[in-house]
Amino acid sequence: MFGLGTPELIVIGVIIFLIFGAKRLPDIGKGLGGAIREFKQVKKDLAQDETQGALPLENQVKDKVLDQMPGVKQAVEMKKKVDKVKDIMKS
Q1: Where are the domains of the chain?
Q2: What are the DSSP calls for the chain, one per residue?
Q3: How far apart are the first and last CA of the chain?
Q4: Which pLDDT belongs to residue 53?
Q5: pLDDT tens digits for 7-24?
């Protein structure tokens, strides 16, 4: 694991313990576990979509981000409308 032995991992653990304290460590672990779980789920979903002949990976990630962030989705839609208006004005 990256050339880290037991003594190095213990030193890293002690430093993390000193920085964050005992009360925050469970919350940090829970958050990290949730992030890893979510990453695995997205990876699994994208792999299933890819085997079904869906959009390329970049488009799938973009669509998932847009679905999770409504403000970004609205901004993209507004940009498309502005581009259409610009095209009409040029004509």
Answers
A1: 1-54, 57-91
A2: -TT--HHHHHHHHHHHHHHH-TTTHHHHHHHHHHHHHHHHHHHHHHHHHHHTT-S-HHHHHHHHHHHH-HHHHHHHHHHHHHHHHHHHHH-
A3: 61
A4: 59
A5: 898 898 888 888 888 888
| Cβ–Cβ < 8 Å for 15, 7 | no
The average confidence (pLDDT) of the chain is: 79
Which amino acid appears at position 86 of this protein? Answer: K
CA distances from 55 to 4, 25, 39, 50, 52 (A): 40, 40, 19, 7, 9
How sure is the predictor about 49, in pLDDT bands with cuts at 50, 70 and 90? Answer: low
